[in-house]
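WP5 quarterly update. Target: Helix-turn-helix domain-containing protein. Source organism: Candidatus Accumulibacter phosphatis. Length: 117 aa.
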Amino acid sequence: MKISNNLTDQAILEELGGRLAAARIERRLTQAALAEQAGVAKRTVERLESGEVATRLSGFLRICRVLGLLERFETLLPEPEPGPMAQLRQQGRTRQRASGGKAEPGEKKKWTWGEPT
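Structure tokens (predicted):
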């Protein structure tokens, strides 16, 4: 099942729990072994896998770490990219003002109404 905004919170929790259970089984770990390696109670693993909401996020992270899934959070919440000004500052360059065409030195043309900008 694809996780989307159309699903209820409970449906998403159950889907995530099922995915965690599949990852655990793929690594041939029992719930007890996973709990021991993650430093959480076996009941925490049971709750996560069943989609119960009475678990703490820290327990979820510990279990994901043991299952080798923690790096996938980078895809979920990537580090924000620096904006254009920050990129210029990082490169040591100063901002340049955007301008139209360059006028010859000493030549000034006065703008008048109806003239294209």
